Amino acid sequence: MGIETRKEEEISLKLFVVLTRTLDAIKKSVEKDIRRYGLNTTEFAVLEFIYSKGEQPIQKIGEKVLISSSSITYVVDKLEKKNFLKRVPSPEDRRITFASITEEGKRFMDDIFPQHQETIARIMGGLPLEEKEVLLTQLKKLGFHAKEA
Predict the structure, then answer these.
(1) Which of 46, 79, 100, 103 is the most exposed place for a label (fewest CB within 10 A)?
(2) Is residue 88 helix, strand or coil?
């Protein structure tokens, strides 16, 4: 094994550790922010998705917000109990049920989402805009490569 190969492996391992620790620190800060609104991260992700994208088939939400389909019913139930979401049967297909944001849910998100965006900006404030743009491009490139590796 050549020196360049060894150096590549060492840097790759170091990059993995740094990325993992960075993501962990970011996630903890974001989770803390979300908890102050009385939601967990999964509830927030589902509510934010429907707030941003509009009414969605419940069966499709899990793949969009990266949670298991077995968990989605539980999360929708919790958000329904909080009166943030409601279930709407599909008029075309009885097998499909949509999750739709309620007026209360919309008011809630209208109120908290700008604060949440500010918190995310503050958490990500360790880099100037230009470096964020470069990092975003590089992380996408790395992610696409990792999917194929």
Answers:
(1) 103
(2) strand
Neighbours of 108 (CB within 10 A): 20
Q: Count Cβ atoms within 10 A of the Cβ of residue 39 and give its class: 0-12 exposed, 13-18 middle, 19 or more buried.
A: buried
* pLDDT band per the 50, 70, 90 thresholds, residue 56: very high
Q: What is the mean pLDDT of the chain?
A: 94
3-class SS of residue 128: coil
The answer to whether residue 23 scores a pLDDT higher than 90 is yes
pLDDT one-digit tens code per residue, 90-141:
898 888 999 999 999 999 999 999 999 999 999 999 999 999 999 999 999 9
CA distance 92 to 90: 5
Residue matched to tokens 């589902």: 46
CA 40-59-140 angle, 5° bins: 65
The tokens for 90 are 């599909």
User: Within 13 Å, how many C-alpha atoms sit on residue 124's CB side?
Assistant: 15
- Write out the residue range of the structural domain in which residue 80 sits: 3-148
How many domains does the chain fold into?
Answer: 1
